[in-house]
Amino acid sequence: MKPSVKAWRPALSGVVEVLHAHFPSHAYPSHTHDAWTVLIVDEGAVRYDLDHREHGLAQAQVSLLPPHVAHDGRSVRPGGFRKRVLYLESDRLGAELIGAAVDQPEYADAALRHRIHQLHGVLVDGKEDLEAQSRLTLIEERLRQHLHRAITAPPDQRDPGVAQQLRDLLDAQLPQGITLDEASRIIQAHPVHLVRSFSREYGVPPHRYLTGRRVDLARRHLLDGRPPAEVATLAGFYDQSHLTRHFRKLLGVTPSAYARR
């Protein structure tokens, strides 16, 4: 069986590369990266040496390999392994945390692994910018907690003022939207706090609210007699298929069926 590899650079600030790969027999020689490597294994198991210490990674775990530290990699089982990797810019977590990652590079954290799995799905699709930004900022927060050995539950407090500011900003920026970093600078609040405050106050995360507003806008244009392909652009979707997917998910019908008389 031949190896299969898919690699790309997503349009997501902070992520320099995404890699999905299946290696039936390949073993990595010792090497380094200039980025933080966030690795999950979907099939098989991996054994690797990091800074001359042996580690293993199973399917229920997450591995975080720091930049500029030598490591190798090989399959534990004869059938090889299938993995997904996010390469984060070196300044996303900070050089001061490299030592902590060397000391403990694997985390048995189901919530973190699920968030990483979700982000990979969003990046494969490549059309949900705000969702990708929101998921990445929550992943990075969790990784920092692991590196600081201080896993804590999200604070149970509301911030309706910040939530309202973000909602007003999302409404004002329709249909094109706004990045989470831009919203953070304008509102003067950390991206994680923005996502959590909004979700608590309105019951949906910011990206889902933005999608709903875009669908509302698309409905108005459809009822004005505009064709779905044009409506997709006017409402802030990437293309007609992007519009159709979200329209059907929210309303149960396609844009064409909705406007049909």
UniProtKB/TrEMBL annotation:
<dbReference type="InterPro" id="IPR050204">
    <property type="entry name" value="AraC_XylS_family_regulators"/>
</dbReference>
<dbReference type="GO" id="GO:0043565">
    <property type="term" value="F:sequence-specific DNA binding"/>
</dbReference>
<dbReference type="InterPro" id="IPR003313">
    <property type="entry name" value="AraC-bd"/>
</dbReference>
<protein>
    <submittedName>
        <fullName>AraC family transcriptional regulator</fullName>
    </submittedName>
</protein>
<dbReference type="InterPro" id="IPR009057">
    <property type="entry name" value="Homeodomain-like_sf"/>
</dbReference>
<dbReference type="InterPro" id="IPR018060">
    <property type="entry name" value="HTH_AraC"/>
</dbReference>
<dbReference type="Pfam" id="PF12833">
    <property type="entry name" value="HTH_18"/>
</dbReference>
<keyword id="KW-0805">Transcription regulation</keyword>
<feature type="domain" description="HTH araC/xylS-type">
    <location>
        <begin position="164"/>
        <end position="261"/>
    </location>
</feature>
<keyword id="KW-0238">DNA-binding</keyword>
<dbReference type="InterPro" id="IPR037923">
    <property type="entry name" value="HTH-like"/>
</dbReference>
<dbReference type="GO" id="GO:0003700">
    <property type="term" value="F:DNA-binding transcription factor activity"/>
</dbReference>
<keyword id="KW-0804">Transcription</keyword>
<dbReference type="Pfam" id="PF02311">
    <property type="entry name" value="AraC_binding"/>
</dbReference>
